[in-house]
Structure formats: structure tokens, C-alpha cells
Amino acid sequence: MQFGKSILVAVLVTSVGGWAVFRPEKLFIDDKVQESAPSMPGLAMRTLATGSFASYAHETTGDVELVQLGGDRYLRLTGFKTSNGPDVHIYFVKGGMAEAG
Description:
Helix content: 10-25%
Oligomer: single chain
Mean pLDDT: 80
């Protein structure tokens, strides 16, 4: 009977530890953010650069636009979608594909 309790405790500890590390419920999270662009009366938003996302380690799609409004610069993401992952990094490069690192 003692051996059975030890196995049960080991399975329970392993299950809780595995859940804490991998967080499987996060595979089903689908957060959507929709914010309006900043605006200032009398000032026009100027586009400085545009580009699109390319997938590397995580499936990623969408467009990016660097805009200037007054003296501030903003990054506008449209149609941005990426897979959930523990380490999703976005690199902005001038032309070509960024190297993973």
C-alpha cells in the first residue's frame, strides 16, 4: 500500500510540474487587440516605412507600418497574427529575412 501512495504522489507532482512548465491551456488562448490609431487635431499622420511579417520559427502574418504624428513615432500592426509560444520574438530588419538568434 505504501508503494501505491508513493506512485500516486510522484504522478501528482509530475503532473503539476508539467502543467506549470508547459501551460497547455495557453494553446487555446486567442487574444485580439483592436486599438484606434493615435490622432492629434491639425496634424497629419505620415508613413515613414512599411513592411510585412515573414514566418520563421512561429507562423506569423500581417503588415507593419512606421508612422509619425507630430514628433512621436508609432508602429502600426494590421492583420497581425502569430502562434502562441513561450518565446515569440519580432525582429525588424531592412530587407531580407532576419537570422534567428
